[in-house]
Protein: Xaa-Pro dipeptidyl-peptidase C-terminal domain-containing protein
Organism: Deinococcus actinosclerus
Amino acid sequence: MRKTSITSQSNPSVVALTANVANVATPYAKITVPRGAMYRLHNRNDVRDRSVQGTYIILDLRDAAGNKISGASRVLIGTRGPADEFPKFHRALPYSIWRDLSTQDQRNEDFKATIISQSDLNTNLGIEIPEGHQLLIHVEGPDVVDTTKSFFQIDFEELN
């Protein structure tokens, strides 16, 4: 098993970014698991030799003017299989978890535990996503996310 980092700058065959629609829960990022792979998004992470319940996602969402989007926005985490008519949403998290932290702060051990503890996906081990399936990040809030000015990073465990 190995760690795989997917970011907003990853290969377009894996990551598709779209501008959301203001005030409607719409896709910002779709991460498609490559052929032959199985990813797990952990819902328990170690920070300074202690296990913390929750997932670890780095998020910096900005509008066309380069300003961070409203902390009142919601970030919805979902999955969707190739034959699924609708996505399955696991959690809706307030963007305020990430809004006041730079991406550098979000990587800092002091802040990491806070982000993880506020990002519990309500699953035990996490979410397993087979090949061809997608992890979805939807955004719902008053601002339109500019995909060219925004950034995310998600670390998966590759299970095969």
